[in-house]
Specification:
- Keywords: Fatty acid metabolism, Isomerase, Lipid metabolism.
- Pathway: Lipid metabolism; fatty acid beta-oxidation.
- It comes from Sporothrix epigloea.
- Belongs to the enoyl-CoA hydratase/isomerase family.
- Pfam families: ECH_1.
- This protein is of the alpha/beta class.
- It has two domains: about 5-215, 2-enoyl-CoA Hydratase, Chain A, domain 1 (Alpha-Beta Complex), CATH 3.90.226; about 220-265, Orthogonal Bundle (Lyase 2-enoyl-coa Hydratase, Chain  A, domain 2), CATH 1.10.12.10.
- The protein is about 50% helix and about 15% strand.
- The chain contains eleven helices and ten strands.
- The strands form two sheets. The chain has a six-stranded mixed β-sheet with strand order 1-2-3-5-7-10, with helices on both faces.
- A hairpin with a 2-residue loop joins strand 1 and strand 2 (about 15-20).
- Helix 1 (about 30-45) runs parallel beside helix 3 and helix 3 (about 85-110) packs across helix 4.
- The chain is globular, with a radius of gyration of 20 Å.
Length: about 280
């Protein structure tokens, strides 16, 4: 598909790179960018030529500065023309759900998603990152759960997902209630990111290298691992064990298991069929 505000490339075999592409506006989100991002991840999820995805922002200054305030102001002006509170609320609810769905497409993508952040990474940047499976950033990254500073509770996923990603709930409450910025070192210390690289180029290279390693594995094993980790996050251990047994009852019957075992014995690189 052709996109205006994102760039989708395939830098190496089975790896896709999705870039937010409004660098002159710090990759701030407008409605078309929301739509394109959701469409891209729905498409990549079922693309047999893709086994791992890297998400980053174009330009040197920002991963994303969050919501484009000019576009948001125009949308609020349109909503004000609706005749009463009930109709404005219904319109707002549909709008929020549509935006949530665009980000949830990242979380629900069958393929592992590595989010590479740099520079300004505020508000919506945290929502996006929470939907990814692995988070890497450059040392100059500036984070914030910014929404209380613009008079609202974050409604696109940070408040739902961040407490499941970071064990320190006091820290989650602190950054969410104060909207204070935190840097790359702090993000790594609490476990929000797994790696901090010296600059954007190094962070992106790290993400692409990691994606290539993941893409070299069995796609049945990789997609199954992501599915089971997601299930385990939201269910009890007993429920997850039962689900894993059902999942692997089918999945372990694939040819990939034999290919992986034989390549280990023969010290060769396995090749796996597309999924």
């Amino acid at each position: 598909m052709a996109y205006k505000y994102i760039i989708v490339t395939k830098p190496t075999e089975y790896v896709a790179h999705v870039e937010l592409n409004r660098p002159d506006k710090l990759n701030a989100f407008i409605p078309q960018l929301w739509t394109e991002l959701g469409q891209a991840f729905v498409q990549l999820s079922k693309d047999a030529e893709v086994r791992a995805i890297v998400l980053s922002g174009a330009g040197e200054r920002a991963f994303t500065a969050g919501l484009d305030v000019v576009a948001a102001g125009e949308w609020n002006g349109e909503m004000a023309n609706l005749p009463d509170t009930a109709r404005r609320a219904a319109h707002m609810r549909r709008h929020i759900l549509e935006m949530q769905a665009s980000l949830t497409a990242i979380e629900q993508c069958e393929k592992p998603v590595i989010c590479v952040m740099h520079g300004v990474s505020l508000g919506l940047a945290v929502d996006l990152a929470c939907c990814a499976d692995i988070r890497i950033c450059s040392s100059d990254t500036r984070f914030a759960v910014k929404e209380v500073d613009i008079g609202l509770a974050a409604d696109l996923g940070s408040l739902a997902r961040l407490p499941k990603l970071v064990a320190n709930h006091s820290w989650v409450y602190e950054v969410s209630l104060t909207a204070r910025e935190f840097n790359a070192a702090e993000a790594q210390a609490v476990g929000f990111v797994s790696q901090v690289q010296p600059n954007k180029a190094a962070a992106l290279a790290c993400g692409l290298d990691m994606a290539a390693v993941i893409a070299s594995k069995s796609p049945v094993a990789v997609q199954g691992t992501k599915e089971l980790l997601h299930h385990g996050r939201d269910h009890t251990i007993a429920e997850s064990l039962k689900y894993t047994a059902v999942w692997n009852a089918a999945a372990v019957q694939c040819d990939d298991v034999q290919s992986a075992l034989m390549s280990g014995l023969n010290k060769t690189k396995p090749r796996f069929a597309k999924l």
